[in-house]
Amino acid sequence: MKPRHIAAVAGVAVVALGLSACSSASNPGSTEPSDSLTIATTSNNQAPMEAVVEAYEEKTGLDINLTVADTGQFQTTIRTQLSSGTAPDVFTVWAGGGNPGAIDVLQGAGYLTDLSDRDWVDTVDPGTAETLQIDGNTYGLPSKLDAVGTIYNTATLDELGLEIPTTYSELLAYCGDVAAAGKVAFALGIQTEWVTQLIPYALVASTVYADDPDFDAQLTDGEATFEGSGWADAFVKYLEMSEAGCFNDDPLGTDVTASYNLVHSGQAVGVVQVLASYPQISSTAPEGSEFGFFALPGDDSGTTSIPRGIGVSFAVNENATNKVNALDFVDWLATPEATTIWFEAAPGIPALTDATVELDPVMQTAADLIAEGDTAPMPDQGWPNAKAQSALFIGVQQLFSGQSDVDGVLRSMDEAFAG
Predict the structure, then answer these.
(1) What is the mean pLDDT of residues 392-412?
(2) How far apart are CA 4 and CA 54, in angstroms?
(3) CA quadruple 93, 95, 98, 104: dihedral positive or negative?
(4) Phi and psi dihedrals of 205, rounded to 5?
(5) Which domains are delineated in the chain?
(6) How confident is the model at residue 231 (pLDDT cuts 50, 70, 90)?
(7) Which of 70, 224, 339, 347 would staple 218 via disulfide (CB 3.0–4.6 Å)?
């Protein structure tokens, strides 16, 4: 077995990520085979990526350098690496255009290789395939579908003897009952910026997209604004949840890892998160922990949708030093062999229609909701730039610190969206 080269990047060590995949800014992308490959992904995908990298090294004999970083740092860094010519050959990307690491943003500068001719393209989940495309061309291989909902510790909920809430009114009552028992319903770690978006995304599935599934298109056409829309209702409810004791003390001083620890310790019942984070939550939990999943209700209709979109995806650097190897690796990731390895290491819902995996209870519940059609768009995957998401991050933190109000946050999102 060959030793793997894995650099875990955190804090000020961002330079390590930038230097781990050396190439030239003027390199047009090598078309000659080589004996190496560089890959970068986020920390919540470290375990499955390590597993597939190990298998691929054994299969091919390549020398693979894998680097990982937390999501926020990764999204900020990858653009810098691409512009300076120091980006890896293969790296994680996000669908749509709503964050700095999204396909629309990166390919807007010509950084991604067109993958439209690869054999796996026609097997991408038809409900989300377009979010990986620009002008009909595909720029990412999706590994799994993603959704936002509540991941909860079943033992803690059983201990309290409470039922999962199915309406917003029940949700507030549930928070009160959990608080009366000395716990919190939802661990919230909004010191980590990207976590700020998750509860609003879950709520707007009901307050916006349930009645207006084309809202993002209307935003883009200038026919709608965040201010004065169901987004206002969602932010009001976010604050109502806080006032009702749904969250832990000092969410602004709590990061995402600390929020998971609250669930693991039984101090919190659950956490509103993306499914992509579930492998990290479950793998760091005490042995024997079991988890469930439910949609976060945003109204009293009794029918709750979950935001659903493409989760983990991979792109090939247009200027890759080891481009032949990069394309081969991405193609291999789409095979049943690699799919089995990936999903054995990390639970998930495959985004390729010909993939078959055994789902655990969390993923099965989410998959059932998706199959029933109880879904809404993942908002930022329909946005044309990353600025509105950044305004949302800042705005939520300002809401919780008392530095802004709902209308102020929504105005800043409208201004950013237009910019």
Answers:
(1) 97
(2) 7
(3) positive
(4) -55, -35
(5) 5-143+311-353 (3.40.190.10), 146-309+365-418 (3.40.190.10)
(6) very high
(7) 224
Which residues have CB under 8 Å from 413's CB, separation 6+?
Answer: 226, 227, 231, 388, 391, 392, 395
Query: pLDDT by residue (tens digit) across 297-306?
Result: 999 999 999 9
Show the 3-state SS of 115-155: CCCCCCHHHECCCCHHHHEECCEECCEECEEEEEEEEEEHH
The DSSP 8-state label assigned to residue 10 in this structure reads -
Confidence of residue 28 (pLDDT cuts 50, 70, 90): low
Confidence of residue 10 (pLDDT cuts 50, 70, 90): very low
Q: What is the pLDDT of residue 97?
A: 87
Round to whole Å and give the CA distance between 72 and 393.
11
> CA 52, 53, 58 angle in degrees (round to 5)?
100
Q: In this structure, are residues 60 and 333 in contact, taking their beta carbons and an 8 Å threshold?
A: no
Average pLDDT for residues 401-418, to the nearest whole number? 97
Q: Output phi, psi for 349, to 5 deg.
A: -110, 115
Q: Is the CB of residue 311 less than 8 Å from the CB of residue 169?
A: no
DSSP symbol at 359: -
How crowded is residue 356: how many other Cβ atoms within 10 Å of its Cβ?
Answer: 11
Give per-residue burial for 56-91: e unless 16+ CB within 10 Å, then b: bbeeeebbbbbbbbbbbbbbebbbebbeebbbbbbb
